[in-house]
Amino acid sequence: MDHTDQNAQPHEQEPQPISYSKILAACVYGADGKCKGMLTPERLQILHQKYNATKSAGLHLHVSPPPQSFASELVGLFARKDRASKNFDSKKIKDSFQRILPPHIIAAFKNSAAVSQEKMASPLDFNPDLSHYWSSHPRDTIFGAFTDCLSSSFSGFSICHPIYDDNIMRLTLRHAIYSAINSPPDVPTATFMFLPCWGRSMSTNAYMALYNQYNYMCNLLGTISFQDLKYADVPFWSDSRTPLPKHHWDLHIIAVWNTQARRTLNNHNPEWLNHLAQNIPEAKWNMTRVSNDAHVRMLPHGAPPPGFKKFKRLKPDHLLASKRHNHDTPMHPEQMAFAQAQDKSNPHLALKVADWKKIAYTDGSCIRHDHQQIIGAGVYIPDTDTIHHVNPNGSNITNTIHRAELAGITAAITHDYFVIATDSENSMRQIKKQIRYPELHTHHIQHNILEAIIKAIRNNASSLIKFLKVKAHTGIIGNERADQIAKHVAKHPEAADTVITMAGHEGNPFHNITWLATSSDGPNTQSPTTNNNNQPQPHQFQLRYLPNKCDALQAHMHHIHKLGNAQTDTGYYTYYQNLIKNKSAHNNISNAFWSMPGISLKEKRTILKYRSGTIYNQKHAVLFKQSNSLSCPICSSQDSALHILSGCQHPIIRNMVTERHNIAGRLITKAISKGSLGSCFVSTDVGSADKHRMQDLLIPVTADSEFLRRGFLLLTTPKETDSPLALMPF
């Protein structure tokens, strides 16, 4: 909005006031061209009135640095709000900046309890029906606020709804109590506080220690349960008007007052509490009347409470209000007029897109109703104020927000718009991919709508279609209007004037594709069925499609065959399967090491690693890029699991292998000697050829030197001592 030129000639036409009834929302832009926040038109009008009133009263002269324009102060207002909320980590406290008391509650206290001031408020959420409000930042004076309610003692009748930080609520309650104690006897002081109750018991709240200590100054008038508590609509938001999360706490109405305040209310209207109960029916009231009796004591015995000495030096807030310009004085009509542009705006600013009104803005929306997802799309052209309500016609797996966004683009192309703006970057990427690599979208869920877009683009080859990406929920008029149209279609599908063709048969884009499926029936669900003639009918299996051919198929196969993630084409798997198939291995003997007490867990793990081929060697080192050589680092031979156990040629390792071999031979000999054939067992050590030559002995020519060099075990029977039963090398 440009401010009215003060040097305008008398014959020049004055700018007309803005019609706020036609504004959906006011977007506040910063110097960088980005949206800093949005306001309802009602709140914008309230702030503009306060800005002009304080300016005419000369209050802007005491602000440093001096305000430049109404627009720049709105930017600063949102910046201060963001900084204040960032001081807290709790999401509950951050949300409390946007939790505002309903207007009918403040109106009831104004009419029945003489409330005229609002503590702990902000220019963005204060109630304009009250005479004064207090904010936390000194610069809020520009919008008619008093600064820092804790810097002056309370007087008169006030309402206070602080943010939901335990420390701030405790300090505010203490300040209200000290104000009631320290006020002169003839000055009524009452503060009606709205404080949340985190638990079902008041004892769980941080401020309850003060409440109990000064219970003669505080009264719990009533409580609004969380089921009946409904906060007012937020008149400001940053990027999108997202609803606040559902609250789960009750709201206590606590009165902190002195005797004169109670007497003033009772004398003015003895039924004031009953009137509050009538005007605020959602609250459960604990009192219907209050006494005029004086308080028994004002301060606890002993030393003054913390902070009371410092508090006594504060000035009453009514002295600050008396110095302020009387806001009830009628203003000049020129001060009440709302010009169409800001004062002191930069005349060199230019629009990023000159013909932005001729662009077709599209958007999609997705809402949930009765546990179902409903989508809609809209197209809006600001130049002609043309609106197209689009039904994306999504069903089953195609009923997504992505289809809604694509449906808006499809409708815009269908209606011959050549410059299209969307806030869906994903849609633009999918269209680009469909043009360049259509084979990759053969089985895309939204294939039919992407194909329709490309077909429409090709049919309009004579005209260049241009797509623009805009930011969502940043105050861009066309995008915000398209978003509202899409939401309207989602709520009212019958309003659509453009319908997109449904994907496939009954919304299934894969109706003509054969897909893997499995029966969802359990073993106990296959009960026989009969027809109307009581004749048995074959069981109809309930099929469930596998969502993919990777992990879903693997999980199904594991359930049937118990294979899990095993690779059945490896050498180890084949070798052990052949042992089982040919019965070459005895299951009990082969796996007896699991239950043998003399074998440690480490040894069992080594055996299992050898069986599965996972003993770490140079092959693994190369695979894991921890080495470049497959050779054994000791003997330089080819490394493997078998090489580690018995193939390494290094002298130390060779002796270790020989000793292990000898231990095995002794164990076998001992086991045979204690068995049923122990008496028939004969053992001899022929020795090596070198040892025979040292003793001038000759080895028989018929003997196998390689075999006899190692020695052998000779098993015989009493009847046939000349023929051995077995020869076992060791």
Biggest sheet descriptor: 8 strands, mixed
**Cα-atom Rg, whole angstroms?**
44 Å
Number of strands: 24
**If helices are DSSP runs of H or I spanning 4 or more residues, what is the number of helices?**
24
Taking pLDDT < 50 over at least 5 consecutive residues as the criterion, the unreliable ranges are 1-20, 325-345, 704-730
Which quaternary structure do these chains form? single chain
Helical content stands at: 25-40%
Mean pLDDT: 80
Q: Identify the strand order in the major beta sheet.
A: 5-4-3-6-7-10-8-11
Q: Which structural class fits the helix and strand makeup?
A: alpha/beta
Proportion of residues in β-strands = 15-25%
The rough form would be described as extended
Terminal CA distance? 103 Å
Structure description:
- The strands form 6 sheets. The protein has an 8-stranded mixed sheet, sandwiched between helices.
- The relative contact order is 0.06.
- Helix 12 packs parallel to helix 14 (447-459) and helix 13 (425-436) packs across helix 14.
- The termini are far apart.
- The chain has 24 helices and 24 strands.
- Strand 12 (360-369) and strand 13 form a beta hairpin.
- The protein is an alpha/beta fold and 730 residues long.
- Helices cover 34% and strands 15% of the residues.
- Among the domains are: 91-323; 356-499, Ribonuclease H-like superfamily/Ribonuclease H (Nucleotidyltransferase, domain 5, 2-Layer Sandwich), CATH 3.30.420.10; 581-655, no CATH class; 674-729, no CATH class.
- The model is unreliable at 1-20, 325-345 and 704-730 (pLDDT under 50).
